[in-house]
Amino acid sequence: MPDEEIQTLNRPEAARTVPAPSRSAAPTSARTEPTPEPSWLGPVLIVGIVLAALNLRPAITSLGALFEEVRTGLGMSGTVAGLITSVPALCFAVFGVTAPRLSRRFGPAAVVCAGMAAVAAGLLIRPFAQGAVGFLAASALSLAGIALTNVLLPVIVKRRFPDRVGTMTGLYSMALALGTSLAAAVTVPMTSALGGSWRTGLLVWAVLALVAVLPWLPVAAAARREKRAVASGPAATVRADAGPKIVRSRTAWALACYFGLQATGAYITMGWLPQIFRDAGVSASTAGVLLAVTMVMGVPLAFVIPNLAGRMKNQGSIAVTLGLFGLVGYTGLHFAPAGGAWAWALLLGVSNCAFPLVITMIGLRAKSPAGVVKLSAFAQSVGYLISIPGPLLIGALYQHSGGWDLPLAVMAGLLVPQIALGILAGRDRTIEDECGMRD
């Protein structure tokens, strides 16, 4: 990739400037004083990050809650319905790759602002779709915006809050978990309260996405003004190396594969955990509550884990602990799925908090914002591609074997390489050092 300027969104002191070299004199060490940032920008940015994170999953989980009604209403075949369930991971992988280029061209704040607008537009359009194709296209628009925001939020945190990566990652991870569980829990009762139409139930979530656009408008405008001021000033911005070639980094691959396996576990849990409980004799309503418990566990832990990880040089021990919680949970589901249902739901909820951990590690494994944007795009794009076959494989094994013994063994087995990869990804090193590049 071409070199990219290391600019700051809201932290001008990090942007170093030096006078353009004179033909008759050696370069000097004079520096241009940066323009102070507006006092309102930091708080508005924090609000924007939280609102963006709240909108990163309702487009998916609200649809999951009403999927049967949507299938019937649009006359979807089983094949098309299966395609729609695979679209989120595919879109996250495909569109996430474009985030670094768009970030270089327009700045990360502007891309996140556009991403939130895309989420809102897709959520506004899809309830009015009259066929599966239109519904799929509108969903893809929202998912594209989510994919871009997924990649760039860690970058913005790294640039604006370099000394509080763990705290800010925890804040938006907690907001993401809250949005996920909220949409899953309230979509159905809210739809009933609003007249029972699935179209209305899905449309409501567009309001939250529209609200999320608002704080990013002034943030993006301020970043654009700062970029113009730097470009037109008397000093030339130092251009840093864009970072290592990601594919040469073992840490980048460890993060990508760890991301993929934790995403596989999360999608399997969301898609199949209620069915495991129901097949064990648990009622449908209780099975739904158990899934909600699993998801809600991510709200407090998504704040605690990144804070803890940010204070540690090596995060491998956290990855091991989370994996062991999952192994105990799957073992319990095998031997006593109904008798210990609440305990297994809690344990799997803890295990699924590998997501905020890997997001935190992405911010810690690169020295510069340029490195973070490339690492984030690589890890998430490769990771989501890895996660696509998981739920389909578990479904095929369940159908073939007629029970959950074999699928549960596979779920538990996937945690073993996930733990090993977490140990590798958690080592105290950066992709710049690993590839012999300058930061």
From TrEMBL:
Residues 1-37 are annotated as: Disordered. The chain crosses the membrane at residues 40-60, 80-99, 106-125, 131-157, 169-190, 202-223, 252-273, 285-305, 317-336, 342-364, 376-398, 404-424. Its main location: membrane. The keyword Transcription does not apply. Signal peptide: none annotated. CDD domains: MFS_NIMT_CynX_like (cd17339). InterPro entries: CynX-like, MFS, MFS_Cyanate_Porter, MFS_dom, MFS_trans_sf. This is MFS transporter. It comes from Streptomyces flavotricini. The lineage of its organism: Bacteria, Bacillati, Actinomycetota, Actinomycetes, Kitasatosporales.
